[in-house]
Amino acid sequence: MTVDVKQFFSTELLAWYRLVKRDLPWRKNRDPYRVWVSEIMLQQTRVDTVIPYYERFMAKFPTVRELAAAPEEEVLKSWEGLGYYSRARNLQAGAREVVERYGGIVPDDKTAVASLKGVGPYTSGAIMSIAFNRPEPAVDGNVMRVLSRYFCLEDDIAKPSTRVGIEKRAVSLIPEGAAGDFNQALMELGALVCTPKSPVCLTCPVMEHCAGRLAGKETELPVKTKAKPPREELRAAVIIAGSGEHAGKVLVRQRPAKGLLAQMWEFPHLLVDEHGEDAALADKLARSLHEETGLLIRPTGRLMDADHVFSHIHWKMKIYEADLGAAVTGAGSEKAWPAAGSASGRAAQTLYAAEASAAYEDSAAASSAAPSRAKLPAHYRWIGREEMEQLTFPNLFLRVLNQYWANSKR
DNA sequence: AAGACGGGGAG
DNA sequence: CTCCCAGTCTT
Fold it and tell me: pLDDT of A178-202, one tens digit each?
């Protein structure tokens, strides 16, 4: 690669950026904390999605110290709906580290920044270059696409080794004293001009020396192996209407501290077999819930289906409605069950009633209290619409819950 | 090297 | 539908 073509790229791209750059909230100043927060939020997340979250987050946690001092649930709540929630926990852990080890000042030190939780090669480079104007590469998906095209590189960008190679090129392109602007220019070009599907080459400031375009390969590049499709999981979920002191409320539970949607709230659900009738699925769910909580629930019908696709799992949820079955005799409620009329549905319902009866006896013997009055495990809770504001729900459950309350209102 | 980890917007 | 987005961490 000749020096001219690189020189041309750097000069033209930088000039272009300074002319057309977007006025984004995190570009108001170079406060390293503001840059840091923005870069974490922008991981795998579009600019337009991030903007409102960023504004709210910075208003609520304006400094490293305030973020470090906040209760973790408040930070998580600020992240509600953004996804990849470990980002929020890691960001706060990083803030606490900065307070404890660096007196609340984000250090102008590559090694120190890179060691913060949730800060990988891209983010450390972004912080060092944008906040401190250090000549570090900040290679994200945009940059890999732009440079793959400009230099006509056919390496698979899904491979970790490819990013390392592109980082080397990226460093060599940084103009003296302009690391921050140049790195942002690279990403701005990828976002506005050199887009994945149909790049707008005719408006590109560096098109005349773009090797990918000159080879007619701009739409084939970058090369990237396809991701595997997410595995499917059928889940039976239930929204349980409380009664008595819990009237108007529903039962929710908090997920474990580790793993998918860690620490977030949800309504009860259970992984079930791909086959199975409504009554059988609801029955499994009811039994499982009884084991966990001691509660005896009575499914009353199917509420809705909800599909939710994560990057690695596809949840197909069948969502049932239930109330707290008081006595066993009422278990075969007449109108409610959708499978009513089908012989197998009735059979399963009968089975459920019998089991519930047995369970009731066990539970009553063990606790000498009505199951519905028994103390819930700590991670279960009855909540109304207002209490929802305190708890953090993934969007999937938020949508269903809101729809449930909208329907039950009239 | 491969999988876990959210959610949404664009074509 | 498919792709993929200002990625990181764990195995």
Answer: 999 999 999 999 999 999 999 999 9
How many whole angstroms from its chain centre is CA A152?
33
Instruction: Please tell me which residue lies nearest to nucleotide B8, judged from CA to C1'.
Output: A49
User: What gap in Å lies between CA A241 and CA A236, rounded to an integer?
Assistant: 16
Residues of A labelled as active-site residues: 39
- CA atoms of A297 and A370, how far apart (whole Å): 12
Where in chain A are all domains bearing CATH 1.10.340.30? 3-214
Name, in order, each residue with C-beta under 8 angstroms of A260's C-beta and a sequence gap of 6 or more: A310, A313
**CA of A259 vs C1' of C11, distance in Å?**
14
Instruction: Please determine, for residue A136, whether its predicted confidence score (pLDDT) is greater than 60.
Output: yes
The position carrying tokens 């887009």 is A195
Distances (CA, A) of A193 to A133, A173, A220, A335: 24, 19, 16, 59
- A183 closest-nt by C1' vs CA: C6
Residue nearest to nucleotide C7 (CA to C1'): A43
A262 CA from C10 C1′ (Å): 15
Which regions of chain A carry the CATH code 3.90.79.10? 231-409
Q: Say which amino acid occupies A334.
A: E
| pLDDT, tens only, A92-127 | 999 999 999 999 999 999 999 999 999 999 999 999
- pLDDT at residue A373 in the model: 53
Question: CA of A118 and C1' of C9: distance in angstroms?
Answer: 8
Which nucleotide comes closest to A86 if you measure CA to C1'? B5
Residues forming a β-bridge with A308: A315
Interatomic separation, CA of residue A239 and C1' of nucleotide C10, rounded (Å): 34
* Cβ A357 to strand C below 7 Å: no
Provide CATH code, domain A231-409.
3.90.79.10
Residue of A132, A158, A170 whose CA lies nearest to A32: A132
Asked whether residue A120's C-beta has any atom of DNA/RNA strand C within 7 A, the reply is yes
Name which CATH class applies to A3-214.
mainly alpha
Of A299, A281, A153, the closest CA to residue A217 belongs to A153
